[in-house]
Design brief:
2 domains; Aconitase, domain 3; single chain; five-stranded parallel beta sheet; alpha/beta
Length: 420
């Protein structure tokens, strides 16, 4: 039987001879990712943990990233509970405040690899399809049970094949592409589907693939996947992961898909997702001139060195409008160090930017960038629904690092092609 990526990897992990979409299978994933929500997860199973302990000290990967440094006594106490849990159960993979956003850590530390199954109590766990993993978000109750038993159930998803043809034009980025796709299929167009990207994908770096896979959930996808190729292998080698340390799973050529969609990359333009839905996508030429009070470059979607390189090239020797804020949010300590070495941080500060610690704060409206009523933010993050940045009466617009950087100079949405 010729299988899609999801079908083949779930056959491998379930022990079944074959699987079909809709079938329920039991799997033992390689890792369970949790973050600040580890505290409420383990509090669900306090007595069971005391009696049985955890399934494996190498199964959990815990990163404190959502509200860092702690913004309240309650958050500080949750972090304390997590640290005590990690110490008591000798958790192998723990990243305290300052290491960075959990998804970036998974990638740069080589914890996400081709052919693995990784589940996490965060919806953007789907990001690791960038390096050929089956990765997906689960809820806290499932995470609690998985921590105790080491196994959980999954429904075999339908698979959608997205064929990317041609090349992107200069300045147009992977963020523009994925926003265009979500605008095309809708925020629910891939509900509980495995989305595979094929075609002319060699032009996309792992950073690009991460941005695209990260936003798979914004069209409802269970996971988003790029086949393992020379780009994947080169990246993994660069971080010290040899080919002998992973076993890729790719779809068969004769696999049958629920749906196939093709996109001509040469026709993609810079776009903006308008409030209050990620699929409310407009060409930038349709929305130029909208005044913005806050700009955010970073987060797990676009907070890598390559993103800051693009922004720095636009902002070099320029100043942002004096009546706006520009927030710079590296996705990890490693990225932060890289931006320092490259001189990007100096460029951002001289332009009027504010550097934030590697974490999630402003993206989810926790702290360090909460909006006021009637304010607008143009962000490289992944969500823009009401209240996402802490205020239900504010508006969030989503765009690429190039678009956000160019727009910050003028204090309004600006076509980045004018600045390069």
């Amino acid at each position: 039987m010729n299988g899609t990526f999801a079908e083949k990897i779930l056959v491998k992990y379930s022990g079944e001879k074959e699987v079909v979409p809709g079938q329920i299978v039991t799997v033992k994933p390689d890792h369970l990712l949790t973050h600040d929500n580890t505290a409420p997860i383990i509090q669900k199973i306090t007595s069971e943990l005391d009696k049985y302990g955890i399934f494996s000290k190498s199964l959990p990967i815990i990163a404190l990233d959502h509200v860092i440094p702690a913004a309240s006594e309650k958050i500080a106490n949750n972090h304390k509970i997590i640290r005590e849990f990690v110490k008591k159960h000798k958790i192998k993979h723990f990243f305290d405040v300052g290491f960075g956003i959990c998804h970036q850590i998974m990638l740069e530390r080589g914890l996400a690899r081709p052919g693995k199954i990784i589940l996490g109590s965060d919806s953007h766990t789907c990001s690791y399809g960038a390096v050929g993993a089956f990765s997906s978000g689960i809820d806290r109750t499932e995470a609690a049970a998985l921590m105790l038993t080491g196994e959980t159930w999954l429904k075999v998803p339908l698979s959608i094949k997205m064929i990317l043809n041609g090349e992107l034009q200069p300045v147009v980025s992977a963020k523009d592409l994925i926003l265009h796709i979500i605008g095309d299929v809708s925020a629910s167009g891939a509900n509980y589907c495995s989305v595979e990207f094929h075609g002319d994908i060699n032009q996309f770096s792992v950073d690009d693939r991460f941005t695209i896979a990260n936003m798979g959930v914004e069209m409802g996808a269970k996971n988003a996947f790029f086949p393992t190729d020379n780009v994947t292998e080169k990246y993994l080698k660069s971080i010290g992961v040899s080919k002998s340390q992973y076993h890729p799973v790719n779809a068969d050529k004769g696999a049958i898909y629920y749906k196939e969609l093709e996109y001509d990359l040469s026709k993609i333009e810079p776009v903006v997702a308008m409030p209050h839905s990620v699929d409310n996508v407009k060409k930038i030429t349709e929305v130029e001139g909208v005044e913005i009070q806050q700009f955010l470059i970073g987060t797990c979607t676009n907070g890598r060195l390559s993103d800051f390189k693009v922004a720095a090239e636009i902002l070099r020797d320029k100043k942002i409008q004096p009546n706006v804020r520009l927030l710079i949010l590296p996705s990890s300590r490693q990225v932060y160090i890289g931006t320092l070495k490259k001189g990007f941080i100096e460029i951002f500060i001289k332009a009027g930017g504010i550097i934030l610690p590697p974490g999630c704060g402003p993206c989810l409206g926790a702290h360090q960038g909460v909006l006021a009523p009637q304010e607008r933010c143009l962000s490289t993050s992944n969500r823009n629904f009401k209240g996402r940045m802490g205020c239900k009466d504010a508006e969030i617009y989503l765009a690429s690092p190039a678009t956000v950087a160019a727009s910050a100079i003028y204090g309004k949405i600006t076509d980045p092609r004018k600045e390069v």
